[in-house]
Amino acid sequence: MKVITVAEMKDIERAAIEEYGIPGIVLMENAGVEVAGQIESILGNLHNKKISVFAGTGNNGGDGYVVARHLHNQGAKVKVFLIGSKTAVVGDALTNLQIITNMGIDILEVINQHDWDKVKIAMTFTDCLVDALLGTGFTGKLREHMVQVVECMNKMNKVIIAVDVPTGVDGDTGQIQSVAVKANYTITFALPKQGLLLYPGALYVGELYVADIGVPRLLVQNIAIQQNLITSGDVTNMLGKRQPDAHKGSCGKVLIVAGSRGLTGAAALSASAAMRSGAGTVNLGIAESLHDIMEMKVTEVMTSPLAEVSPGVLGEESFPELQRLSLHSDVVVIGPGLGRHEETMSLVRRVITTVERPLIIDADALNALIDHTSLLTEAKSVPILTPHPGEMARLVGLTAEEVNQDRIYIARQAAIEWGSIIILKGARTIVAFPDGEVYINSSGNAGMATGGAGDVLTGIIAGFVGQGLSSHEAALASVYIHGLAGDIVARNGMIGMIASDIIKALPAAIFGIQEND
User: Fold this and answer.
1) Are residues 421 and 488 located together in one domain of the fold?
2) Residue 1 belongs to some domain of the structure
3) Most CB within 10 Å of its CB: which of 161, 223, 267, 316?
4) Sign for the pseudo-dihedral over CA of 388, 393, 396, 402
């Protein structure tokens, strides 16, 4: 499914009006009709239902006036609270304001404290609050009078329905600078705005409905829109079913270079996840002093002892053997639990520029790229990087908080500049490609906020690449399957979920996706 920015939605509306000749007031009418219909579906029979519509002076308010008219015609007792003066309303919104004025619908301009007292009384006795204050027109920080109305709405414990975007949520980034309307339902138009899917904004959306307002299909399906939502249908088309005559040699050979003293668990989790995702064989390259430990820890995984520069630390002395092992592999992973020793970082940089197999760079290996991201353009194939916000922050010279403020933009720019596939982990993981295409993951849950979950994702990616998926397909399918496995585990509760639980659920997650075919 395509996901849209605020600017792209404005371009679509402009094209619908100027190129297709659809009057703006028709789009506004369609939007209001759709919202009113959804309200009826949510509340049931509208006769005598008390509904308060909070409208701004812009086009989102215009949508609200249309909503008010149709709810009134269905027998609802509607009050419209205009936050501002009627004199500030212009264009199509003004036309619809005049219509509901002529219909005798109760409209109150909220300007002074006396007006606010009336608002609070009305809220107390209403069944539903409609947020048509700002929509996609909002960015930055709410003004004081808007903060006041939003806080009042949130305190009332009433059903709140937001028109297009809850007031206070940035439609592009999902960021909230002060407060935002905590909607139970949000009805957005044409396509989901990306800020509705990203946290923290996603917490304020409630149930999301995407309404068709009559925008021509070609505009909505425009290939120039480069944001997408990963869904089960997308992944079903990527994961083929195993052939009856398959054998371990035909199902992918994965090489994972991982582990150091105190961090062998990361290596074990990645290797086990690669096996559980369907890889035929997995070879774990590990420092020779840790080899015996790993042989007992991962029974189904092969292990290869590598030369070390000190106990548990890999350096360039291990490179010749790594290169030899890579030639017998379909994909190479480097990084989980590898440690940050200077010698290890040198080894990682050499592997990135030399190994001739698809490469997945994770965890500690990402630290080798600090001030060296230009090396990624020397990789023999497009590498996959899997940073969490902290790791991404170190690579781009920002803080983790700054990365999370605009995850799509930062992931996209990094992917373009580094010629790499970037999987920016976290709630709503972002997958970005060098051509600027970006995907937002729709699976997963808060129970997956547990140590080792990222190592599991890395192993899944490797397993899928080994089985023949392109790096592009593997990145998307792995992120979704990883989250889906977490969702399966969460059926028994999120608290207490551990990374190995996710690994155990992988076969069921993959089977569930394949059965959708």
Assistant:
1) yes
2) no
3) 267
4) positive
